[in-house]
Amino acid sequence: MNTDGIGTGIAKLGNVSGRNTSIYSIGRMISSGYIAISSNKVKNVEASLDDNNTMNQAIELFKSIPQSKYTYKGNQMNDGFRHLGLIAEDMPNKIYTVDNTGFPPNIYQAGIYEDRKITLLNPINFDGMENKNEIQFLYHKDNITKHIETKQFSFVDEYTILLENNIDAEDNDVFVYGTRENIPAIEKESYFELTSCIVKNLLERIEKLENEIIELKNK
Length: 219
Known about the structure:
Blueprint: E1 2-4, E2 10-14, E3 22-26, H1 52-64, E4 68-70, E5 83-85, E6 97-98, E7 101-102, E8 109-114, E9 117-120, E10 135-141, E11 144-150, E12 153-157, E13 160-163, E14 173-179, E15 181-182, E16 185-186, H2 188-218
Antiparallel strand pairs: 1-2, 2-3, 4-5, 6-16, 7-15, 8-9, 8-14, 9-13, 10-11, 10-14, 12-13
Helix pairs in contact: 1-2
């Protein structure tokens, strides 16, 4: 099921018939709150991070996760900022990563549509593509931008895409986004929990050092 976001793109609601429900959003989602189940009724508590060995494990895990500076390739998700954060492919041993598929902007350019043929202005780089069996493109109809995900096409060459069927577009301008690929995602809730544990430990260490400094000054 698709539902329009508030100026943020398209959100997809999945697994509604099962116990778990997931939402995948293209672009940002706006929410007044977020609730995560965090009860010992659903979690097996193995150790407290007050234990030094357990805390040291958390610190070493946190230190092993690389940080990157990045921007988004697609303008659809590009908010104009350079971000500091995580890249799923860099996560050690795929910690906190989940399998996910979507359309990365690996074509991401305008084209001219005529009689089932899309002619691109710039060549497609096929080297980085994992899957050439499905593409996403956009066109205008009745003053609405329509998203099409189709397997009914073929790459003629690096400049040309041939559709099996005509589309009822208002004009000859289309925008080809990319092919369906594996795009790993990160469970940022888990990373947030790890980060909160590290911050708490650092605050405790700072407080201890401050008390020691006060005691030394008073001697």
